[in-house]
Amino acid sequence: MAAVLTCGPDARLSHRSAARLWGFQLRPFPLIDVAIPSRAARRGRTGIRIHRQAHFDEASQRVVDRIPVADPVSTLVDLASCLSRDQLERAINEADRLDLVDPEALREILEAVRSRPGTGRLRQLLEQHIRTDTGLERRFLRLVHGTGLPTPETQVWLHGYRVDFYWPDFDLIVETDGLRYHRTTSQQASDHRRDQVHAAAGLTTVRFAESQIRDEADHVSTVLAEVASRLRGSEHLDDL
């Protein structure tokens, strides 16, 4: 709050500082990021990085813990101008995890602010359909690579549902169930329904819990390799 007040009545937290205020789990940054309108005449202050923004929009301002801050979408756009690709991807996942931004809806929102620095890079990342959670799905991908299996398609839509990982050559789906999205009764019922729809279409679904991926890597790798081998064998039999 002191940094914002120092930078004038129109100032607000932005970039990394805004992300941390919203609850993103980003690495600490030594400076406090504050955005102000480009017309504002303010000098820099020790410990504060001032961002003069020609696109400064008061409608995109929010208040968190009584501190003026850029809204989540503006924060992601700002981050796109200063983070690496992996860091930006993690930020998108954080916004999704915190229910601040739906990545699917974010694409549409970005069309309205496409002239702002960072929007092109952010759109490019979203269009790749890769939204893996750093602590769970990325870890699973490392297990996949250790089995020698081909890299699966990620976050693809099948029969009206988006699945975590899909091997079209094996008709195999893998879902990685984090506690956040699979702990409620309604979500568990939804998971059962989607698995049943995929089974009716001839697809095999395997689910791994977060604790298994984290603590039982050898078991997960063995099951994954054996299921893929069985499905590969079934495919050869169908060709006879």
Entry keywords:
single chain, 240 residues, alpha/beta, Endonuclease, Chain A, 4-stranded mixed β-sheet, 11 helices
Q: Please report the total strand number as a whole number.
A: 9
Cα-atom radius of gyration: 22 Å
Name the helicity range.
40-55%
Order of helix and strand elements from N to C terminus: HEHEEEEHHHHHEEEHHEHH
Largest sheet: 4 strands, mixed
What count of domains describes the coordinates?
Answer: 2
Class per helix and strand makeup? alpha/beta
Strand content: 15-25%
**Mean pLDDT value:** 83
Oligomer: single chain
**pLDDT under 50 segments (min length 5)?**
179-183, 236-240
Shape: elongated
Distinct helical segment count: 11
Distance between the termini: 71 Å
Strand order of the main beta sheet, please? 6-7-8-9
